[in-house]
Amino acid sequence: MKKNTLEREIKTTNDGSKTLFINELNENYHSHHGALQEAEHVFIKNGLNLINDYEINILELGFGTGLNVLVTINEYLKTDKNHIINYFTLEKYPINEAEIENLAYFELFDNPELKNIYQKIHQSEWEKSVEITKGFYLHKIQCDFFDLKNIDLPKISLVYYDCFGARVQPDLWEKPLFEMVSNKMNVNGLLTTYSSKGSVRRVLQDLNFKVEKKQGPPGKREMINAIKL
Fold this sequence. Notes:
Pfam families: Methyltransf_30. The protein has helices at residues 35-45, 67-76, 97-103, 113-123, 175-183, 198-206; strands at 8-12, 18-22, 27-28, 55-61, 84-91, 129-133, 136-142, 156-161, 185-193, 209-215, 222-228. With 229 residues, it is α/β, with parallel strands linked by helices. Helix 1 crosses helix 2 (67-76).
């Protein structure tokens, strides 16, 4: 696939939130059972809310529609905000302005601040750290996931592993990429993903992660949390 050639259309998922559908891959960006429910269950309930560090360095694969960033900021704004989040996110195929406007994820939240924050997330410059709201820094990086080994990052305490499914991109769920991710993480860092594949669990165990199966988001029986030992 050549850069910026993905054909996408917007679809509404079962919880009323929207997602993008890639025609040539026959793949949604999020679960059709509910994009918002999936993001909050996998990456907030079983991710961010389990981290107690003063400074949290998050690595996301990949940025996609920006929903995971928005739910993370929404959760951050509920706290006393006396800590710092540095959010690094990789994306090879950024979405366009029409898609950003039509997805309108800020409408899913009660907090009126999130409209401006949603716009700032998408307008922020790539390859640069931008303070989206006080104490929350977003750094968007346009690259292939396998370029991760060449990217200079602080030690990561939390990984949102949100790649397209193994059915369409199996190489994203094999040892080489997981090893690159592991090399960027702190000891005791947490990797959380919607996947529960046995092959993924075995790869993570081989890379010295303690793997735990958790209840999955709506429509999915299980998901994985993995702690780097």
